[in-house]
Design brief:
The chain is α/β, with parallel strands linked by helices. The protein has two domains: about 190 residues, Isopropylmalate Dehydrogenase (3-Layer(aba) Sandwich); about 140 residues, 3-Layer(aba) Sandwich (Isopropylmalate Dehydrogenase), CATH 3.40.718. The chain is built from eleven helices and twelve strands. A ten-stranded mixed sheet has the order 2-1-3-12-11-4-5-10-8-9, sandwiched between helices. Strands 6-7 form a two-stranded antiparallel sheet. Strand 8, helix 6 and strand 9 form a beta-alpha-beta unit. The radius of gyration is 20 Å and the shape is globular. The structure holds adenosine-5'-triphosphate (ATP). The site of adenosine-5'-triphosphate (ATP) has 15 residues, from loops.
């Protein structure tokens, strides 16, 4: 029996509302596959916790999360709760730094039957992964702005060490996808026609490409990629980019899936990984049972996939595939319409459909 400890951080707003269905779906998938068990430990963190206790995530909670095999997170932050300097409460960003969660992995897959914003029929073929570097780039300037009365400078940092580990991760990801029938193409997204730091980024990408001859290495400038993500997003397999470009492109990419409630993500580091839906705490719909849990459910599947690969546990990978298949089946008929898309289906209805589909799929 493969056993894993999962730290569960529901967080704020709709975080808890989408985490509860995810745990239900995880349990159903593990029971259906057999030979795998997940033990959850719920931990308090987020803006609500900060408001009550003056700390967003206590040291003990961080330590407990660190001791777990993986972390599943709902959403954190509330607009009205801020640190004295005005910053939002975002312990998930602190965890990124603490555990060097260098790869922000955003799978973008059109789910047949779900409402897609692009009218082109090829939009149903969208299936790529965007990987965003998360430890440096332009975000390295956070808190270090050089400012005078007449000027402000934010410095972009690209290091060889961070770039090599990022590209190696992405080439391996493309190799793994290729084994599952994908194209085996990794596209480096940069601005090497303008910025020296991006010339360096691309040079390291090309060097690492030589170590992965089975994967085709391509380049795109970030502005051209923004266009392509609208004109032909189905043409991509895996793409990798710097922190700031990734921040922007990943929201565009989430839009291609229909909306934030459909888009999963994983923040992956050398030892730890945090899986969470792309959306925030959505206080406007919190407490009303309206949140779409699909992104959180798909993030839970990503977590199983990562655990399976890391620990050599094929049962975990099988459970991940089962969840994805159940989500696909739930939407396939075209009659599941989450409230996010103006339909009647709230959190409970979407969850029920996924669980019912799993019974048929398993
Ligand atoms: P953050 O800055 O924390 O990422 P945000 O301000 O970008 O958050 P979200 O909290 O993600 O925004 O929500 C943006 C809007 O999208 C919300 O107003 C909400 O109506 C909608 N939304 C987000 N997630 C979901 C979901 N899972 N189901 C339904 N609607 C959602």
């Amino acid at each position: 029996m493969a056993e894993f400890r999962i730290a569960v951080l529901p967080g704020d707003g709709i975080g808890a509302e989408v985490i509860a269905p995810s745990l239900e779906v995880l349990d159903a998938a593990c029971a259906a596959v057999g030979g795998i068990s997940l033990n959850y430990e719920e931990l308090a963190a987020g803006a609500g916790v900060y408001r009550e206790r003056g700390v967003a995530m206590a040291d003990e909670a961080v330590q407990a999360a660190e001791a777990a095999n993986a972390i599943l997170l709902g959403a954190m932050g509330l607009p009205e709760v801020r640190y004295p300097d005005g910053r939002e409460i975002a312990p998930q960003v602190d965890l990124r730094e603490l555990w060097q969660l260098f790869a922000g992995v955003r799978p973008v897959r059109a789910i047949p039957g779900a409402p897609l914003p692009l009218a082109d029929p090829r939009a149903a073929e969208i299936d790529f992964i965007l990987v965003r570097e998360q430890t440096e780039g332009l975000f390295a300037a956070r808190g270090k702005t050089e400012q005078s009365a007449s000027e402000a400078r934010d410095v972009q940092v690209i290091t060889r060490a961070a770039s090599e580990r990022l590209f190696d991760f992405c080439f391996k990801l493309a190799e793994r996808r290729k084994e599952r029938g994908h194209a085996g193409v990794l596209t480096c997204v940069d601005k090497a026609n303008v910025l020296g730091s991006m010339v360096f980024f691309r040079k390291i990408f090309d060097e690492r490409a030589g170590l992965f001859p089975g994967i085709e290495a391509r380049h795109r400038y970030v502005d051209a990629m923004a266009l392509d993500l609208i004109k032909q997003p189905w043409a991509f397999d895996v793409m990798v980019t710097e922190n700031m470009y990734g921040d922007i492109l990943s929201d565009l990419a989430a839009g291609l899936m229909g909306g934030l409630g459909m888009a999963p993500s994983g923040d992956i580091g050398p030892e730890h990984a945090v899986f969470q839906p792309c959306h925030g705490s959505a206080p406007d719909i919190a407490g009303q049972g309206r949140a779409n849990p699909t992104a959180a459910i798909l993030s839970a599947a990503m977590m199983l996939d990562w655990l399976g690969e890391r620990h050599g546990a094929p049962k975990a990978e099988a459970a991940a595939r089962l969840i994805e298949a159940a989500v696909d089946r739930a939407y396939a008929g075209g009659d599941l319409r989450p409230q996010e898309f103006g339909g009647p289906d709230g959190t409970a209805a979407v969850t029920r459909r996924v669980l019912e589909s799993m019974k048929v799929t398993a």
